[in-house]
Amino acid sequence: MIGEVFTWLNDPGHWKDTRFDTGIATQLTAHVRFCAFALLVALIIALPLGLVIGHTGRGRWLIAAANTLRALPTVGVLVLLTVVIAPHFYGRTDTGYLIPTEIVLIVLAIPSILSNTFAGVENVDPAVRDAAEGMGMTGKQVLLKVELPCSLPLIFSGFRSATLQVIATATIASYLPLGGLGRFIYDGLAQQDFPQMIGGGVLVAGLALVADLLLYLVQRYTVSRGLTGRFSKKRIPDARLASVTQAEVAAV
Amino acid sequence: MTALATSSSSSPLHFWGYFMDHRSTDLSWLWSHTWLSVVPVVIGLLVALPLGWLARRYRFVYPPLISLTGLIYTIPSIALFVLIPPLFGLKSLDPKQVPIALTLYSIALLVRVVADGLASVSEDTVQAATAIGFKPLGRFFRVELPIAVPVITAGLRVALVANVSIVAVSGTIGMSNLGQLFTLGFQNSTNGPYYPPIVLGIVLCVLLALVLDRIVIILNILLTPWRKAVRS
Amino acid sequence: MNRKTLMLAAAAAALSLGLSACGADSSKTSTGASTGSGSAGTTTIASKLIMGGPPEFKTRPDGLPGLKKNYGVVFGKYTVTDTGGPVTVSSLKNGQIDAADLFTTDPSIQANGFVILEDPKSNFAAQNIVPIISKAKATDGVKKILNGIQAKLTTDGLGQLLTKVQNQKQDPDAVAKQWLSDNGLSGTGSSASGVKLTVGSANFPENVILADIYAEALKAQGASIKTTLNIGSREKYYAGLKDGSIDLFAEYTGTILQFIDKNATATSPDDVYAALVKALPSNLIALDKAQAQDSDAIVVTKATADKYSLKTIADLAKTG
After folding, report:
1. Looking at domain A2-15+29-251, what is its CATH homologous superfamily?
2. ipTM score of the complex?
């Protein structure tokens, strides 16, 4: 079984596009593109929002609201949006299916990034904040030069878990007529081609691992060494949880 | 049967009428959805406790254990569902494949949570407990674990809410749960959208997730009476 | 202030760039594929068209390989949509694909003025409705009830049932009960009492209605029934039938035969049925086939049919 999967993955013919089959290389690119776009948009929305809410302390309800987004069933939302949006697109385009998929992935990515950014800013040592203000920094400077760098470890952790979720979930794009690595899983299932199906699963897991490793490296070189030194001894709990605990405190 | 006239409405707001028309089926799906979301987390917690303790006790276990469990989390759920029957020697449509997959996901998430929760217990507290005369096992159950409860329950909340969504995915391969409502609505949307089952499915999933979440919060408050005492 | 607006503009630009990259690329691949095949030398009509259907149509013997073998039809590109469902219909209607694999009973073919291309060489084998049941559960009482239903199922009747569910959004279970009473099959009794059955269905409305009809009739005769409806692919539910997770399933003679025996060649209703009876594993049996058929068909829009004057699948292989 495992051998067959490796044979499938190793066959150069499976990597290239043919007339009727889209190869691994193209689907991998498509998968990365779906995910990168969704993560970028989620980051543009959630990062500033989280920073501002954490800094001003206003709009905490938004964090709680974003956490309820986690409760949305992904498949259900995808189906609903597709039924609403897809019939309005005519001609040679898959935009009608692309939009629902991207919305679902963005909605999936926002809660982790938003609540972790918020928790990161919120958890900055008040003494550090006071010191910054004491030095004469304006509110904006405190946020961008002190609070943002200090909350980077939590922000990264949120972004990394969002990335993992988005990469694994982007397979549902192939529930619709879109590409991506999910194509191999769904097609393999329908064609009784198990090496293909499992190979697809392996590729998704591999992509997730590589993405996480890259983000880890970025994190390593962007987070101040003063912070990492401190955190490595204390080993912070999983940031996803820290953020939920935050929301919980806000909710109770 | 009597409600044929009303059940033919396809407005999104008709989901409640749809629910009333198909109460028995919908409730049985809700019930199995609940069961499928909760049981794996409970089993996952029972497995994660000793593993998390190991990771806490022997530092060198932590990195490989966390990477391994993190790896499980990256497998797409649809692939895991299909992979499990051959791996576990089950019948291909055995309803057990879903709880097994979800248990794996839950373990993956909770091992780390338990380890980190236990790590959040300060060294001073552990030493104090030892000094009072707690044996390691008693100290674990009566001091370290209770202090880790807030972090662990936070993990339980994430796991439960995630499970509700993943169970719905299994509905698309025929498992009886709320996910069926999505397939049903989608397949009947060929000539014009058929919203009621889709909207009903989303509403019930969200409600279920929120209720389960609330229960864990209450559990957390009940299990950590000292936090209340400190606060007031 | 100035810097802020600048950053916002940059973000917006990046965003629109990203979205257009996603969109543009996808449209490029589809047109690229169709022109590419055109320049390959033989510009048949088919080579200008994009075909859409389920994933397995690419590999199924009566799918793309069969079209090539029987008619010399090779499409420019194949897009995976779904199994005769909403995605296929809407993609064909909106022009994402030009030809589709749909089912002949589908009311949306008429609703959208789609044209079914004739299949003179019987690329698609006969597809009579047939209940596949596990031998252990097929008591004489059960057989009699199900065969009674089979005798009343007609192709037109199926289309009407589907219209009720798919277009009028009626409940499949209610439609099934109504059909049983309309056909004088809703009598209660005890001829199936003591039998415990799990009825399964695939995830398209017609199959769900059929499963409901079987389930309701058996229930009325005292059987204890569980249903597992909307199972995704045949791979899943056929395995379920074989290993006993499901006991009863409404199948289509041609498709199930080809699924079991990749080299099956029979095409007429009787030949297919006879071959199926032989091919089934020992723990499964086929009850009577109904007169009702629901076959795969290559379907195009009215505009496409007119543009290339298409009547049969063979016309797709002409140069144009």
Report:
1. MetI-like (1.10.3720.10)
2. 0.84
